[in-house]
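Quick question about two entries, pasted in order.
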Amino acid sequence: MIKEIKVKTALLPSKLPGLDYALNPYRGCAHACVYCYAPSVIHWNGKWGELVEAKVNLPRILSKTIRTKKKSVVGLGTVTDPYQPIEEKYQITRRCLEILQLHDFPVCIQTKSALVLRDIDLLREFSNIEVGVTLTSPDDSVRSKLEPGASSVAERLRALHELRENGIDTWVFLGPLMPHITDIEGLVDAVAEVKPKYVIVDRLRLKPGVWENVRRFVEEFYPQYLDGYVKIFVEGRQGYYDGFLGRVRELCKEKGVEV
């Protein structure tokens, strides 16, 4: 379901590393990722993925706000995906990008959608822009269960390739890496093929409410790993990730991928 809303603010301060401002064209996300932390951040009520609110007046608010802001890095899509399916109709992300480009603000986009390719013409006009694509598995059967509304693995890899071919800096968010489920060798091999500028690697971080979603997911699709997940995330045996993440870094180094 889609709901149109109006907002009063744009370019809110960001606490994420490397980002000065956060700009989120939508509230909610149809990608419905099992592990998503955003519901706890924005105090979302209801089932995540069923409702998306479109901030229909955000470009107008941004055009006013930007004149008073110091030129600093804007993170586009910090608690929502700026290129989720609703963007195809509303084009709020594109209109915001047009304003940001006009004022020459540096931008960092993060998405799980190949729809970003629609805006290559605009992205090429920026003097400072990066596009990051999240990948959690090289196996699309895993992706379809974990991130049911997002683009396929092949579509995301194609987007990374085409963006790079068009002179746009790309990066990959490898995460959250799912214990026992993520094929890290296959994932690193796939990423190395599209030659991103760098990758960011992260573990599964369980914000309030996320564990229940993850538990149901593992119980339904990978019951053989449920005991392991309980040991890691309920009993607190986080040492598991030391070796897991270390292996990812080792593989990236072997493939010449900067972490």
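Here is the second entry:
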Amino acid sequence: MQQFEELKFGHFYHIYNHAVGGRNLFYEVKNYEYFLKLYEKYISSVAETYAWVLMKNHFHLLVRIKEESDVVGSFTPDRVSNPVRGKITTMQFSKLFNAYAQAFNKYHQERGALFERPFKRKLITNDDYLKQVILYIHNNPVHHGFCKHPIEYPWTSYLTCISKQPTNLKRDTVIEWFFDRANFIAVHEQKIDRDGIEGWLES
């Protein structure tokens, strides 16, 4: 059984989770849009986002937790006492999932837990895995049969990466990891080692 530590300041994480049982996290466009709205509300103050995908019953995120000074500075002093400092980032993700679950259940007139707990997170210490995780995330809809290419799926950061529209996604850094936009697109055409990545996530 995996043991999940608090999210560490200044580190990269692959954060992912599923709905409980046979439930779905998203039924319609409004659900996806509202999750992303809450994501901006709760997560922008504690983490930078490099890649994401929202699937019907699960999601994947690649984030870098901001430095402690940047995170603590965005909260009022009474909320950042020493016992709480190291938990702020984890708490914000939990608030996101709780807020979405409450709104989702109310809107769809359902009840009960929505997300598996605790949410899963994998510390990334290998630079090669940063690129591999991005490819894994963007190709998730392809793997699950929702499309034949990431460009066809709307709820992923792939479209943002190849766009020039303003974004909070760390797009420039992502493209630099793949050298340039053309190579970023070309690499997404290649087959990825899903088994290797999934084995690493569960290790």
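Reply: The chain has ten helices and four strands. The mean pLDDT is 89. Hope that helps.
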